[in-house]
Batch of 2 targets.
Target 1
Amino acid sequence: PIPCVPWQSQTSGQYQRRVHGEVAIRVIARFRPINKREMQESNKRGWAESDLRPYQLSDDMESVSIDYGGRIPRTFTLDRFLGEQTAQAEAFEAIALPAVMDCLRGINGCVFAYGQTGSGKTFSMFGPEVPIEQQEAMVELLGMIPQAAMIIFEYLRSDKAAEVAKFRRSR
């Protein structure tokens, strides 16, 4: 059995369930970089940098303040925010690695991406949309699914997996 202990959130004061040092459900938002089309459009319209990026991440990366153009800025708090410059490996470690490790211990896990069209879900989950032959040269850009698969297969090839996977023959 996996020990589950309640813990109190540092930011919200609410009690949540902690399993082996990880929260059972976490919400993480990732900001994608501004793409070329958006940059060209902003230059054409004469928009300022703050118009393209109307947000400010907190130092602890747990809250974001969004300025709605003259209105009172709104602040949102999640378990973690990942900025525009977050590498795929860092995103994987923050988002998917805990679920992958739980799965290897026999605990179900799920990671899903949600957002509007063009927000970067496919890139975050799979990486660049290139033929598989080209992916070997772009390992640092692989998304969460290929990285998770690599870890699972490395584990299955290891001696540790052989020890865990002792099966009894049933009659």
Target 2
Amino acid sequence: SNCALDLTLLALSWHDINKFELNCYHYNVVIDACAKSNVWTMALKFLTVMVQANVEWDTITCNAAISACEKSGKWEKAMQLFDLMTQSTLELDVITFNASISACEKSYKWEMAMHLFSVIAQTNVELSTVTFNAAITACGMGGEWRKALHLLSIAATCNRVKTDAISFSTAMSACEKCSEWEKALLLFREMAQSY
């Protein structure tokens, strides 16, 4: 909330006045507060301040900044941060991919979301239900109901991932957007039997 951001900024100014040295953890809290408050410009500003203060970023820093961009529909900025991470020694984790795929999904960039989904398969990062749901939603937003159903079937057979009502709902929505009501009805029946 904005209250959390205000309190965080107040704490930062107190630290600045008292010449308290800020570290990565402090900045992560601020950037996360920016993400939760949908203030992506401030999140990126604090990344710049970190560089100016010679404070090194970590995966949590970048994930929070990507999330801030994702929540504000700034997929290009999210992808720039993702690219910075891939070019650095920072470790990409499931949160990195989930936030990046969600940023693409919210901006109707299903091709980019699917690209990221294919990249995650080439890493040691384990897919999650959130990863699949974001990719299924992205395909649905792009009118790619077949791809959405394919992802749902992969998720259903993946040992470490459990499909949920959101998985089915997003796949049904993808079918509905493309007037594939029979497919949506079949999915509804399957979901009703599964849950």
